Amino acid sequence: MNDKNILAIDYGTKRIGFAICYQQTSFSIPYITLENNDSVFIKIKKIVDDEFIDLIVLGFPKTINNYVSERHQLINAFLKDLKDNIGIEIILVDESYSSVESVSLQKEFNIKSKSIKKTKDQNSATIILDRYLNNFR
Fold first, then answer.
1. Is residue 127 part of a domain?
2. The overall pTM is greater than 0.90
3. For residue 33, which phi and psi values (nearest 5 degrees)?
4. Which parts of the chain are coiled coil (predicted)?
5. Of 56, 97, 98, 99, whose CA–CA distance to 78 is shortest?
6. Residue 11 placed within a domain
7. Amino acid 58: pLDDT
8. Residue 1 lies in a domain
9. What rounded mean pLDDT belongs to the chain?
10. How many structural domains comprise the chain?
């Protein structure tokens, strides 16, 4: 059983996916996908407040030989803004191939491409949250 309400985030330059695990449960559920725009931190703060979030799990790609890619830099900037605007504990979790896994799972269940595009980011966040729940509790 989980003792915190946890919000997982799959960061993207266009869209950001979210998943939640409530303390009464031990599983993650897709929550929402938001456009990544100027109001995104206001919306994230509202989610944190409305859902009584205690912890944020942010997907972060593994580095190879300490190489910092442009994606790493973008996520680091997002992480800094997230810390400045939200003010709760944030844990980084490997997001490697979460989007590929999300799309693959949806295709296995014969979900249409249009639906996959709409839910890919929040389903990727669910995979990131599952990784946290399985490995870091």
1. yes
2. no
3. -120, 130
4. none
5. 56
6. yes
7. 96
8. no
9. 83
10. 1
